Amino acid sequence: MSKVCELTGKKAMVGNNVSHALNRTKRKFNANLITKRFYIPEEDKWITLKLSTAALKNINKKGISAVIKEAKEKGFLVK
Question: Cβ of 77: how many Cβ atoms within 10 Å?
Fold first, then answer.
């Protein structure tokens, strides 16, 4: 499965490990993703989303229906 948030589109970034001697080697900064189930009362069904913890905070603040609506407008969520 891909390491991309389904609501915000966050994905892994590339950077460097920097040693004390300032040697640089490539590394990846992965997004902080979790898999979570949500109940949508308007559609009377459960959906499973892979999302970042930042998206989860947005859901707690705005509600699942509002966040899904925004994601569909931006083109991230296809479900």
Answer: 19
Which H helix or E strand runs over 25?
Answer: strand 24-29
Model-wide pTM > 0.85: no
Cβ pair 10, 4 in contact under 8 A: yes
Distance between CA atoms of 41 and 12, rounded to whole angstroms? 32
Token pair 């559609």 is found at 43
Confidence at residue 77, expressed as pLDDT on a 0 to 100 scale? 74
Three-state DSSP class for 42?
coil
Domain 13-74 fold: Ribosomal Protein L24e; Chain: T; (2.30.170)
| DSSP type of residue 35 | E
